[in-house]
Structures are given as C-alpha cells and as structure tokens.
Amino acid sequence: AAAMELPPSHGVANRAAALATGYLCYRRGSPGRGLALRCLRRARRQDIDDVGHKYYLELVLEDVLDKDSTVNCTAEVLYHLGNKNIAPDVQFTLEGELKNTEEADNIFYSRIKSLEKELVAENIPDSHGNVPPEMEPVRLLAWVASGYLIWQNSTENTKFQLAQIKRVKQVKRSDEYLEFDYTILLHEMVSQEIIPWQMTVLWHPQHGVQVTQDSRQPKHASQ
Amino acid sequence: DQVFHIVPETLQQVQHLQHLCSTLLLDFWKPQLPEDISTGEDLHIRVPAHLVQEVKDSLDHHMISYKVLIPDVQQLVDQSMPKERNSHRQVPEGYDYTQYHPMDEIYQWMTQIQKTNSELVTQHYLGKTIENRTMYYLQISQPSDKTKKIIWMDCGIHAREWISPAFCQWFVKEILQNYKSDPKIRRFLQNLDLYVLPVLNIDGYMYSWEKDRLWRKNRSPYMNGTCYGTDLNRNFNSSWGSIGVSYNCTSEIFCGSGPESEPETRAVAQFIEKKKSDILCYLTIHSYGQYILTPYGSTTEPPSNSEELMHVAKKAADALMGKYGTSYEVGSTSLILYSNSGSSRDWAHMIGIPFSYTFELRDNGTHGFLLPSDQIQPTCEETM
To answer: Looking at the UniProt record for this protein, which Gene Ontology cellular component terms does it annotate, in alphabetical order (chain A) (predicted)?
Structure first.
C-alpha cells in the first residue's frame, strides 16, 4: 500500500518519533551528549502486507544540554507485525554535524577512572528536579542507555521516557571500559505506568555506549 | 543590578517600602530620600543584583505591584560564589513562588492570601478527601451587584505533576498583585469570577512528597487495603470505564469502582454541576507534554463547538509561544495522545460548559514530572 500522510500532531506518529529518537540517542549519545525530540515535522505511514507498519519521519532533535542546538533528521521506523519480541527496525540520517563532545567525554572518563571508591548515587534528578552539576554526565549516560531500552521495548501503543535514575553504582573493571549498574524508572505515557528497570551500561569515549544486560523489575507491591 | 519602578497605593505599602529600602540600603533614584516616598507618586530604586530576588519576593508578599524599568544597570561580576538555587533566602515572611511547596504550606498560603486580599478573595470549602482532608478553593471576585460568569481552574489532580499546583499559586499571585495596576486584569474581573482549586488530589500530593515522588492517583484503599488509588482523571462520569482505563487497582489508570466513586471527584463534580449555567470555561492543569487539549478523549467525534474551541486554544498557544518560544501542541486528546474516558475535562464539556481545556505544562520529557524549580517561573509566566 502507498504511504499515507499523517498530521504531525498525530499520536501514533509521535510515538514512532519518540522511538526513533531513543534509538538515535543510543547510537550517537555519550555522557556529554544527550539528544531529545524537539518536534515532529512530517510523518507518513505505510502498511506493508504481512510485514508491518512503516513510518517515515522528519524530526528536529535538540541537545539536552543546550536547547538552542538542534539538528534535523529523517528516520524510518518499522513495527513488525505479529511477533512482539522483535524490536522495531530503525534507520536514520542526520543532516549536519553533532556537537563535538570529545573534551567533555575525556574529562568525565578520567574523573571516573581515577576515583578511589566506586561512584554511587540515588535519585537523579531529585524530587525538585535538581541534578548536581558533577552528576550531569552520569544522568546523560542513563538517558542515552535508556534509548536502547526504549527501542527494544516499544510498540505502536507505547511511548517511553526516562523519568528518574533511582540508583546508580559504578562497577570497577580491569579493562578500559567504564561500567555502571543503573536502576532507572521509565514512564510509559499511554498506561501512565512507572516501570523500574535495571541495566548494565558500558562506555568508553571511543567505543560509545552499550547496554550489555537489562531486566525489567516488578513494581513495588502497590501500597 | 536592576532598577524598579513602583507606585505605592496605600500608606501601608509606603511604610513597607521605606522599611525595605532602609534595611537593604537601596539606592534611591527617585525621589532622593525615603521620607519623600508617597502614595500615587513614582518610586525608582536601584537594587543590587544579589538583592533583586529578595526585593521581588518582598514586593510579591506584600502585593506591591512593580515594573522592572532597567533590567541590567551594571554588570556586577561576582566571581566568588554563584547564587545557590536550593538554599532558602533570608526572606522571613516571604512566600517563594519559584519553589515547590508541601501541602501544609499551601494550606497556610491560602489562609494568608485571603487575609491580605479580603476585598477580592474568599476561601471556600469544597469537600473532603478520602483521607479526610479538607479541600478548599479560592474565589477571586470583584464585588458587584451583577452575577458574573465563572472561570474554573483546578490543579494537582495527579499527584506527581508538581508544576501544576505551583502554577495555580503563581496565577493567583499574579492576578492579585497586578489587579490595581493592570487594566486588562481589572476589566477581566469586572465581568468574570475566577475559581481556583490549587490542589485537587491533596492526599496524593502529600504522598508524593513523603513516600513516592512519582505517585499519580488518590489514596483510596481497595482490595482490603492491599491496593491503593484511583486515577481521578478517569473517574468522572464521561463515558466512564469505556476506553483507556483499567479496572484493576494496581494500574495507574484505574478508573475506580464506578463513576464518581471517589470523594474528591464528587466534591468537584457536585460543585460544578450546581454552578454549571454560570461557568464559561473549565480549565484543568496537568504536566507534562506541552499540550492544550480539547474534548474528547473517549471518542474522535469532535464536540459541537470544536471550531471555536480550537480557535481559542490556538490563540492561547501562540501567545504562550510568544513569551519564551515554548511550543504547545493543540488538539483533542483522542487524536494527539491516546483514548481515555472519565476525564474531568470531557465531563465538564458534556454537561454543557462550552470551553473546556486540559493544559499539559512543561516540559517535553527531558525532565518530565521532575521539572526543576528554576523552570517554575518561566513556565508560569508563559502560561499566564
């Protein structure tokens, strides 16, 4: 079937946009660079028989640390029919360059590598929305890694966003990578649920961000 | 540094200004001496950068209207210590509208607001919450012999959306503080009464302060106290329980045991039902997402006055964007977000209130529910 134009305010198109943004952020992000969706410019949808639903999107992304810094992007998201265990396929093209974060990344890398005791922290941001400046890269790393979880677990009926880092603990490694064990809270917009999720995140300035293990956690017994 | 322009209205204000200026050793540009401050006369004072907020707070607290004549007189580069955002400033009695407040402080604030603005503001009983706390709304009404149409605004129906009650408080402060000096507000109040419910879901709000910051629902016990909370915005009698809800108490969108099963819902619904022929506009404030949402959530069928609803909403979104460039999406919930039933906004429209809107305030998801307090001011200013 041919691709159908959707209004940019369309709910499902925006969910596809959020998914694409999460994936993109995971692929291109670092503790010095987090990307968020500024707006959806254009969306088209194509129903492919026996395969699934494909969305063609034109997005504007912004740098989480510098809202005035934006980049345009085109993306294609394919939600597979039937089998809910396959993550959607995402392809994207960025127009233009992303800010270079090499220096900030290296500073963070050295700082953590030289810590005597492993870094441990809770509730980032805190209840009032505050993030201590030295924790900002730790927060962004979670933001980037959550992009992986968002990509792997989204359907056309879900829209995930990182709500808070409940806990983060550094795990010391003998190799060059930094490893962090995060327990984060994801907010799912349609069901309004807050979902705790544990993830192991590896990072190195030259090798990007990797989620090597993750596990959805049960909600606390509803008090 | 900034230069403030103030026209004192009462002797009380003159005295407070004299006290403030002499205590803080502010620089008089006009008149030359504090003794020459008088009602109805221009006052220009230069306030050093580090006292600007304190002076603003004091003026706010005493409901003294002011304009910033010069926003940046002189760069005072303070290298040693940037101003701490979190610590409380040394304002003894001031209410800080740029911070989030727990419920007991909001109760006190309501009492204070009525006391210091008794000509315009009255505090009224609305009902009780499931944990037996009292719900109050504020009525802002210019005395007049004619019956006026009403604009109703409620905040804090969802506990974790802290920016919402913060906005209601800001809104009240802005109206009262600028009532005498702003002809637009005066004209507004000549023809309309404002009813503001600063926190609808009081129990939930308190729970989000004390136990679980991301709690959403009320604190109604179900299943023998093994499960808590109804989503109050799924509990109204508008296609209740039909779509976009859960019948399971463990869900965040649990719609309750029946329409208006919750005392908070009933308190609001009974009041609005009683006054509905005079209510022109129903506003309910949420976060996050940056939307102005029109009916309906339960169906994609547009409401009868949909064109007019959209037109007004679009104008609001444009005005909002004009302030800081923040963009708000406008449209019906069922098309923009997801389907849901039992929302207060849908119900208000269904019983005949023509203009019914849900505002979803900042931000877009980067902070979500945990909006930093330094965004309270710009969020509220643009939404005003």
So the answer is: cytoplasm; extracellular space
In which residue are the tokens 């959530």 written? B297
Please give the model's pTM, rounded to 2 decimal places. Answer: 0.81
The answer to whether B70 contacts chain A (CB < 8 Å) is: no
**Predicted pLDDT at B86:** 38
The residues pairing with A37 across neighbouring beta strands, listed in sequence order, are: A61
Asked if B349 and B364 count as a contact pair (C-beta separation under 8 A), the reply is no
Residue B242 domain-assigned (yes or no): yes
The whole domain housing B258 covers: 103-211+235-383
Q: Are B264 and B204 in contact (CB under 8 A)?
A: no
- What pLDDT was estimated at residue B194? 97
- Which token pair is B95? 């209410």
ipTM of the complex: 0.89
| Inter-chain touch A9–B229, beta carbons under 8 Å | no
Is the same domain home to A59 and A149?
no
User: How many Å apart are CA A28 and CA A89, to the nearest integer?
Assistant: 17
Condensed to tens digits (0 to 9), the pLDDT of residues B14-30 reads 888 888 887 887 888 88
Region B337-362 average pLDDT: 95
Rg (CA), chain B: 22
Q: DSSP class of residue A134?
A: G
Does the CA dihedral B246-B249-B254-B257 come out positive or negative?
A: positive
Query: Within this chain, do residues B67 and B154 fall inside the same structural domain, yes or no?
Result: no
The reply to whether B221 falls in a domain is no
Q: In chain B, how many domains are there? A: 2
Nearest chain B Cα distance for residue A85, angstroms: 23
Residue A38's Cα: distance from chain center in Å? 14
Nearest CA in chain B to A185: B214
Q: Nearest CA to B234 among B221, B220, B244, B248?
A: B244
Enclosing domain of residue A181: 101-216
Structural domain ending residue among the three candidates A95, A115, A143: A95
Token reading at B72: 């940046």
Q: What angle do CA B211, B217, B220 make, to 5 degrees?
A: 90
Return the CATH number at B285: 3.40.630.10
- pLDDT at res. B79: 41
* Contact call for residues B264 and B232 (beta carbons, < 8 A): yes
B360 has catalytic annotation: yes
Considering the domain architecture, whether residues A173 and A211 belong to the same structural domain is answered as yes
Q: Is the dihedral of CA A180, A183, A185, A188 positive or negative?
A: positive
Rounded Cα distance, A172 and A178, in Å? 7
Q: Are residues B245 and B130 in the same domain?
A: yes
